[in-house]
């Protein structure tokens, strides 16, 4: 089987007539959109017709932008190309000019009376009711068109420039490490990947080398995180948000009550993970009950059986078939149409990723397939993202956006389907590896991300009073990591530069990329528990839920599945499922 993806349905290359034509079309759409806004948004006569016209124009702009951006992003992640980075920057810079029209429309919308009544007059507007209502809610946080336009332009040389500088520093830092008797110059990403290696000496050496590499770029990274967070505090404050967290909750279509219910349940149940880490310390032969942090991702079990890519495909399709033919047929299409780039190679990002390209009703998946059973789980996870998007292909572009907390739901759900099958068919040692890897991932998304959430809260609180030094950032990170890992991890082994190796802190405009992933994991666990109880009666309702995620807030979307996300008991029940997995793991080893 071919392990590389086919991008021809998108573009042949950057130099192709199709790509260059769409670049020109993007500029044309932006110019026409801005000209239209200048002419039409001075009064509210013929309001329904104007709303329809704007939405059609804006959807057309978003379609071309999505194709261009997705292609450049795919090339960049697959081959770390400087050309792709340059093209991507140019696309983002060009598209920022659409901010003027978007802000004008939002302001115009705010001045309308009886929005719902107007929407009722048009089937097209009715399809966009949620989007328009959401824009109206957000309009109170918008500044004038001139100021918003200036902010968008200045961010290119402000927070986004700091982001690029951080990524450049983190990508270019190299350190020497002895690997199998040979001294090698390795990158930060390579060092982090060694955390999963079966060689305990290499894991420890790589972890220490990572700390030293982080230290070497700590001053630059501190400048970046201060610049990005400082701009966020200033801009969101000007718009009227009480904090960056309030802005993220609004963007996530999530309320504070949901976040509080989930975080309280996590805090209360941290000891179940501490128990797992203590057991792992014993299995790895440590003399203390606390696990050194450099062994937190150490593999357990044999994990030495190799599977082929075609066997992985067959396993995923057959596992999905136990849930629904629709899901299985979709997975088969993903493989048949070469939507996946699974070939490990130099210059390629060593992570899983799915990019959805709604204008062509396709997705593309990046992963690195090495033949392990774990790689099957990763593939299933990314196909889950693509399947979620396939439930939205009949929507217009603005109706395809679903919140980040929901984004991990379908992916983890699909991963759970496959993992349950792998636990049944895999050899004993492999089954233990799969079970333990799932628990390890859950610990990362829940314990580690909760610690990083606490850090981000405290960092923003202190940032109000001025920039934080490297020492202050280190102190905060150590305190938060020690709090959440408790007795399960030896605190003396936690290196203080973990704020530096979490890229989410450096992504401008994407604050708090932590709790949404905790939500996704726990929510999907809760859904999977429902599926096990209800069987096939669950399937159609689940598809309806995924199809509704782009046009509902989280509370209302969850109600489709009969779930109250304000209930701490729901979150505790989901955590109990992980506790049962931990108990099963302990009993197996």
From TrEMBL:
GO terms for biological process: proteolysis. It comes from the Bacteria. Its cofactor is Zn(2+). Keywords: Hydrolase, Metal-binding, Metalloprotease, Protease, Zinc. It holds the Pfam family Peptidase_M3. Binds 1 zinc ion. The keyword rRNA-binding does not apply. GO terms for molecular function: metal ion binding; metallocarboxypeptidase activity; metalloendopeptidase activity. Residues 194-576 form the Peptidase M3A/M3B catalytic domain. InterPro entries: M3B_PepF_2, OligopepF_N_dom, OligoPept_F_C, Pept_M3A_M3B_dom, Peptidase_M32_Taq. Residues 113-168 form the Oligopeptidase F N-terminal domain. SUPFAM superfamilies: Metalloproteases ('zincins'), catalytic domain. The keyword Metal-binding applies. Belongs to the peptidase M3 family. PANTHER family: CARBOXYPEPTIDASE 1, METAL-DEPENDENT CARBOXYPEPTIDASE. This is Oligoendopeptidase F. It comes from Paenibacillus anaericanus.
């Amino acid at each position: 089987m071919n392990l590389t993806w086919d991008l021809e349905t998108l573009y042949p290359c950057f130099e192709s007539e199709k790509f260059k034509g769409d670049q020109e079309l993007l500029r044309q759409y932006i110019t026409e959109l801005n000209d239209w806004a200048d002419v039409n948004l001075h009064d509210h006569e013929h309001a329904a017709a104007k709303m329809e016209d704007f939405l059609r124009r804006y959807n057309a702009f978003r379609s071309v932008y999505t194709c261009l951006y997705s292609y450049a992003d795919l090339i960049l992640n697959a081959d770390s190309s400087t050309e792709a980075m340059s093209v991507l920057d140019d696309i983002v810079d060009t598209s920022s000019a659409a901010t003027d029209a978007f802000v004008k429309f939002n302001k115009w919308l705010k001045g309308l009376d009886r929005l719902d009544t107007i929407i009722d007059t048009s089937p097209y507007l009715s399809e966009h009711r949620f989007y328009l209502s959401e824009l109206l809610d957000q309009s109170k946080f918008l500044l004038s068109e001139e100021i918003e336009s200036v902010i968008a332009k200045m961010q290119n040389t402000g927070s986004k420039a700091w982001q690029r500088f951080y990524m450049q520093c983190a990508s270019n830092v190299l350190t020497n490490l002895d690997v199998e008797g040979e001294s090698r110059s390795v990158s930060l990403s390579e060092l982090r990947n060694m955390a999963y290696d079966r060689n305990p000496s290499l894991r420890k050496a790589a972890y220490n080398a990572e700390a030293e590499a982080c230290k070497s770029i700590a001053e630059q990274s501190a400048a970046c995180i201060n610049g990005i967070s400082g701009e966020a505090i200033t801009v969101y404050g000007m718009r009227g948000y009480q904090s960056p967290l309030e802005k993220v909750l609004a963007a996530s279509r999530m309320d504070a009550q949901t976040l509080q219910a989930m975080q309280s349940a996590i805090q209360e149940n941290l000891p179940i993970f501490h128990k797992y880490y203590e057991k792992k310390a014993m299995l790895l032969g440590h003399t203390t009950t606390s696990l050194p942090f450099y062994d937190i991702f150490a593999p357990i079990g044999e994990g030495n059986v190799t599977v082929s890519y075609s066997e992985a495909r067959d396993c995923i399709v057959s596992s999905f078939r136990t849930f629904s033919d629709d899901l299985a047929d979709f997975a088969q299409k993903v493989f048949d149409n070469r939507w996946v780039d699974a070939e490990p190679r130099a210059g390629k990002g060593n992570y899983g990723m799915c990019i959805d390209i709604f204008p062509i009703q396709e997705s593309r998946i990046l992963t690195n397939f090495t033949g392990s059973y774990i790689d099957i789980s990763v593939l299933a996870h990314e196909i889950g993202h693509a399947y979620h998007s396939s439930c939205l292909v009949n929507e217009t572009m603005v109706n395809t956006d679903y919140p980040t907390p929901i984004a991990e739901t379908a992916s983890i759900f699909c991963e759970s389907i496959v993992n349950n099958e792998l636990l049944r068919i895999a050899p004993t040692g492999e089954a233990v590896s799969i079970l333990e890897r799932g628990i390890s991932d859950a610990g990362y998304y829940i314990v580690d991300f909760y610690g990083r959430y606490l850090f981000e809260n405290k960092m923003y609180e202190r940032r109000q009073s001025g920039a934080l030094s490297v020492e202050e950032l280190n102190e905060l990170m150590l305190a938060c990591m020690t709090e959440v890992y408790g007795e399960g991890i030896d605190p003396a082994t936690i290196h203080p530069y973990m704020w530096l190796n979490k890229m989410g802190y450096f992504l401008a405009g994407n604050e708090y990329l932590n709790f949404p992933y905790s939500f996704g994991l726990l929510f999907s666990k809760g859904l999977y528990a429902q599926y096990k109880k209800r069987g096939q009666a669950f399937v159609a309702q689940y598809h309806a839920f995924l199809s509704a995620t782009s046009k509902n807030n989280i509370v209302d979307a969850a109600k489709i599945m009969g779930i109250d996300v304000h209930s701490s008991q729901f979150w505790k029940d989901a955590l109990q499922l992980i506790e049962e997995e931990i108990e099963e793991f302990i009993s197996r080893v």
